[in-house]
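re: ur question from earlier - yeah i can do the single chain one, its not a big deal. heres the input i used so u can compare w yours
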Amino acid sequence: MGERQKNLSVELVQLMLQYSAQVRLLKTEVNGKNALDLVIAREIGVESQKDPDGYFHVISRDKGFDALIKHLKSGEVFAARHDSFAEIALLMNAGERVKRMAVHFKSTPESRPKKKAKLESQLQAVFGKTLTPEEVEDTVKRLVAGKVLSVSAKGEVTYKL
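and the output i got, formated as tokens:
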């Protein structure tokens, strides 16, 4: 948080509480053009040294962070920029997962799985292996209910996009 930022949204606070072991609120008194950007870059550098296997998410619509992310990745630091929390797979609810997969299937028709087992595997791959088996099954059921796809008794997947 910067010097002028006095409030946080309820949504953000709820997410921070839910992931309190992985999130840290940093308040800084610096100001000026790109001041917070530089503070964030420094903090990711410090934290990536402490946790080389950590994954760092920068939540900002500022595409200027893309250069930082590219630099971090070149140094084998896991990092990504997202416009909003809703883009982070781990934080998505079931409905958001279904929307994400519908877009994924539309944009990559050549890689659509033809069997349920492969579909489940692809769900895990898209969501960074963060889903429980129950969440995978629920997502498949919601994809069927949302008429994105159908699954036959033999486990064959047909897309309705």
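The beta strands are 55-59, 78-82, 149-151, 157-159. not sure if urs matches, ping me
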